[in-house]
Specification:
The chain has 312 residues and is of the alpha/beta class. Helices cover 33% and strands 28% of the residues. A six-stranded mixed sheet has the order 7-8-9-4-10-11, sandwiched between helices. Strands 1, 2, 3, 5 and 6 form a five-stranded antiparallel sheet that branches. A four-stranded antiparallel sheet has the order 13-14-12-15, covered by helices on one side. A hairpin with a 2-residue loop joins strand 5 (61-66) and strand 6 (69-71). 37% of the residues are buried.
Length: 312
């Protein structure tokens, strides 16, 4: 299989439930080697999209490719190179973590029995479960089950990892470990497609992002480009905010507002140093002046107009 430019590519991908278009003609482009954040509010269509990509449900329209191959026709050849954890893993509670991994591995299309123990050892070590591998899964916390699901996805060499809320239920230490693991996997050449509601986490580990809302793909691309497309604002603390606002308005800055001794405005290409010079020349005492660049959260809220509860 030749290395494609895109690990995931969709064209007009659509899924309907009755009259509702849960996924409405989306065109995803996930570059090979990227850590791709997939964001959207509740009911935006993210998990439905993931299920279609992996062949768990049928699409009603459009087409898609995984690792350069047309799906779902090549699923049998492509999916062994794809590791996935969708909506929390399901395990046999009366079996140990090791036994669960062994059973799932044996059920795969290419049961490599001779290397199974070594692969289980490595997978458990990578997700921090070596010490509890012989405990029954019914004794695992939710976060430990999430880790075991990741271990299952890592049992074989993967070119693409599709992870749905991988840090759900984890404490801060576990979240940090999974974040580092995700970076490590990407550095080894895997593409990671990550659905998450933790915008701060996505900003730290993802190179690219896509935003879904009401079944539509609103934006996608490198995080830096999406942020640069947002509105940079000027924040200045002065001894005369009313006069400062007048000066900035004369300069052509818009969306001016005053809060106590602080003035805000949209920069729209103006240089902060020019604003500072004009304020000082007008007799305004400037205590601080800063350009506030939009965050991923700002971009998300601008695109969706919705709150921060962005699970699926």
């Amino acid at each position: 299989m030749t290395t494609p430019a895109l690990a995931i590519e969709t064209s007009g991908l659509t899924k309907r439930f009755g009259d509702l278009a849960a996924v409405d003609g989306i065109d995803l482009a996930v570059p090979v080697g990227s850590v791709f954040g997939f964001l959207g509010p509740n009911g935006s269509g993210k998990t439905t999209t993931i299920r279609m990509l992996l062949g768990l449900i049928n699409a009603d329209g459009g087409s898609w490719r995984l690792l350069g191959e047309d799906m779902p026709g090549t699923a049998q050849a492509v999916l062994p190179a794809v590791g996935a954890m969708i909506e929390g893993p399901a395990f046999y509670p009366w079996l140990t973590g090791r036994q669960n991994l062994a059973r799932y591995d044996a059920a795969g299309p290419d049961p490599q029995r001779s290397t199974r123990k070594a692969r289980i050892d490595e997978a458990l070590a990578r997700v921090g479960l070596t010490a509890v591998g012989k405990k029954k899964v019914k004794a695992y916390s939710f976060g430990m089950k999430q880790r075991l699901g990741l271990a299952l996805a890592l049992m074989r060499p993967r070119q693409l990892l599709v992870l749905d809320e991988p840090t759900n239920g984890m404490d801060p230490q576990g979240t940090r470990e999974i974040r580092n693991l995700t970076k490590e996997l990407a550095s080894e050449g895997a593409t990671v497609f990550l659905s998450s509601h933790l915008l701060s986490e996505v900003e730290q580990i993802c190179s690219h992002v896509a935003v879904m809302s009401l079944g539509k793909l609103l934006a996608q691309g490198p995080i830096a480009e999406l942020a640069a497309a947002g509105t940079t604002r000027l924040r200045g603390e002065t001894d005369d905010a009313a006069l400062a606002a007048q000066v900035l308005e004369r300069l052509g800055l818009a969306e001016l507002s005053v809060e106590g001794t602080t003035v805000f405005a949209r920069l729209d290409g103006h240089r902060p140093e020019d604003c500072n010079r004009e304020l000082v020349m007008a007799g305004v005492g400037v205590r601080s002046l800063a350009a506030i660049h939009p965050t991923l959260e700002d971009t998300f809220l601008t695109l969706t107009g919705e709150g921060f509860d962005v699970v699926r």
